[in-house]
Design a protein that fits this description.
membrane, MetI-like fold, 15 helices, MetI-like_sf, 2 domains, mainly alpha, globular
């Protein structure tokens, strides 16, 4: 995990050194757009619109952003700070990267958590039902429905839902902006919950539908493989009912591939964002923050969030590996035979 984390950060840092339009260039472009007498506030007030920018002041700008040091020195200093989770301040938003990420977390957590609950809550029972009724009309119809949903991109589905239910051309039922209404703080507890859920219907539907097909088919195939094994025939021969065979024998083996992916999916649900869904529904989440940071060459946000989410991703992978041992005692990392 440590070499992977270091390699990801090193590779990304090297790439940022060759990307045109860095923070200094971005600031210069903003200065040129201020017009006559325009002044940049704070530490960058050394420049006025028509006065030009000499080498001394350009050097001051580079020092302001830390670009007066060699790249190797900057990378080492950055990693030292990141080890204690000091991500510095955003060049563009002029606030702490940690505070900026925390402020965007509720949106991404809302989308991810509800998508997680819907995907696992629907796909596991649906996949089991499809495995038990493999080849039936129910299996064919549900497979067609979920594959159509999988084939439709999330942002296209979002636009369709807006047109149908967001006041686009038909019904004006659901709101299109934010996760709560403007007067949410003054509402009662029940009203707050209902208002929040009301805002979440369209974004969550748009983001969750595409994930249903993968998890449903994974569940179906896993259980179908177990149902066809010899121990199931033996259990039936002993006189056990189909329900007993399914839930006492097949379930604990068939659920292993799904459960082992549970930790990674659960953690990712809290911290990932969807750029297109957040943009369409005007939600300030992590996806939109990452995209804007790349466009604005806001390197502290780009590198800081990458470091944090890489750790989260590696940790979730570790939990997934460990869950194999917990769920299936036949697996051992210590055995060499």
């Amino acid at each position: 995990m440590i070499p992977t984390l270091f390699g990801v950060m090193l590779l990304t840092f090297v790439v940022t050194q060759f990307v045109p339009g860095g923070p200094v260039e971005q600031l210069l472009a903003q200065m040129e757009g201020l017009g006559n007498g325009g002044e940049v506030a704070g530490s960058t007030s050394v420049y006025r619109g028509d006065s030009g920018l000499d080498d001394v002041r350009l050097a001051q700008l580079k020092e302001l952003y830390g670009f007066d040091q060699p790249p190797a020195t900057r990378f080492v200093n950055m990693m030292k700070n990141y080890l204690v989770f000091d991500f510095g301040n955003s060049y563009y938003y002029h606030q702490s990267v940690a505070d900026l990420v925390i402020s965007r977390m509720p949106v991404s957590m809302s989308l991810g958590l509800w998508s997680f609950v819907i995907v696992y809550g629907v796909c596991i029972p649906l996949g089991i039902s499809k495995a038990v009724r493999d080849g039936s009309r129910f299996d064919m119809l549900t497979s067609t429905a979920i594959l159509i949903g999988y084939a439709i991109p999330g942002f296209v589905l979002a636009i369709v839902l807006i047109v149908l239910f967001g006041g686009g051309s038909f019904w004006n039922i659901f709101p299109l902006r934010g996760i709560v209404s403007d007067g949410w703080a003054d509402m009662g507890m029940v009203q707050k919950i209902l208002d929040y859920l009301w805002h979440m219907v369209l974004p969550i539907t748009s983001g969750a539908v595409g994930s249903l097909a993968v998890m449903t088919m994974l569940t179906k195939n896993s259980f179908l493989e177990e149902i066809r094994k010899q121990y199931v025939l033996t259990a039936r021969a002993k006189g056990l009912s189909e329900q007993q065979v399914l839930y006492k024998h097949v379930f604990r083996n068939g659920i292993i591939p799904i459960i082992t992916g549970f930790p990674g999916y659960f953690i990712a649900a809290f911290f990932t964002g969807s750029l297109l869904i957040e943009t369409i529904f005007s939600l300030d989440g992590m996806g939109l923050l990452a995209y804007q940071s790349v466009l604005n060459r806001d390197y502290p946000v780009v590198l800081g969030t990458l470091y944090f989410f890489t750790i989260i991703g590696l940790f979730s992978r570790l939990l997934s590996d460990l869950s194999y041992v917990v769920v299936d005692p036949r697996i051992s990392f210590d055995r060499t035979d």
